[in-house]
Amino acid sequence: MNTIIIILLVSVFIIPLFVWKEKYGIQPSISDNFRKLQEEYGKGSLRPWFFWLWLMGVGALFHAYFLNGLSFLTMVLLMLVGAAAEYWKSKHVEIPHIVGATGGILAGYVTVIVHAVQVGHTITGVTGFIIGGLLALIIEKKGGKKRTYWLEVVQFGTIILIVTLIDFVYV
Questions:
Q1: How many domains does the chain have?
Q2: Other C-beta atoms within 10 Å of 65: how many?
Q3: Coil, strand or helix: which one is 132?
Q4: For the chain, what is the radius of gyration of the CA atoms?
Q5: Are 35 and 133 in contact (CB under 8 A)?
Q6: Is residue 25 helix, strand or coil?
Q7: For the chain, how many helices (H) and strands (E)?
Q8: Looking at the chain, which runs of residues are DSSP E strands?
Q9: CA 14, CA 22: separation in Å to the nearest integer?
């Protein structure tokens, strides 16, 4: 069952990113794809809300894999990102959006580290967190205008990679 959830999580995370990249190019942030969807299909269309469903899917699959309070928090914070997808319109929407994105990534790391400790792979969890932090510093310094996009992709990718290593490679 866990293998299916990980395959779904990777697929649900990666496939829309490729579709949006092909359609709109790499945006300054993953969330800017919501704006592009809105521009293309109109504000009254339900298609832009596919972005929110995508975030909900990633969060729900993450929670389904771990089924604990931390993974639930990760899911809720990612859903907050989608709920505040029009972050560019005002500070009142931007703050929850940033809290959701940053909190979702940090809660994801904490979930994975706790899981690593529980299954006896503490070093893998902590090392993955350190590598994710170092990659974040490098991207922040060298990432240019698209650094937020790359931070988001690399951090979520690192979290998924750590889980895969712990549960499928080091078993």
A1: 1
A2: 22
A3: helix
A4: 16
A5: no
A6: coil
A7: 7, 0
A8: none
A9: 12
CA distances from 163 to 33, 140, 153, 169, 171 (A): 27, 24, 16, 10, 11
Task: Quote the pLDDT of residue 77.
Answer: 93
Question: How much is the pLDDT for 71?
Answer: 93
- Report the C-alpha gap between 54 and 114 in whole angstroms: 25
The answer to whether residues 96 and 104 touch, using CB atoms and an 8 Å cutoff, is no
* pLDDT digit string (tens) for the chain, length 171 residues: 688 998 899 999 999 999 999 999 999 989 888 888 888 888 778 888 888 888 888 999 999 999 999 999 999 998 888 777 777 777 788 888 889 999 999 999 999 999 999 999 999 999 999 999 999 999 989 878 889 999 999 999 999 999 988 888 766
The crossing angle, in degrees rounded to 10, of helices 91-118 and 69-83 is 160
DSSP string covering 4-68, please?
HHHHHHHHHHHHHHHHHHHHH---SSTTHHHHHHHHHH-TT-SGGGHHHHHHHHHHHHHHHHH-S
State the residue range of the domain holding 46.
2-169
Instruction: Give the CA-trace dihedral at 103, 108, 109, 114, to 10 degrees.
Output: 120
> What one-letter code names the amino acid at 16?
P
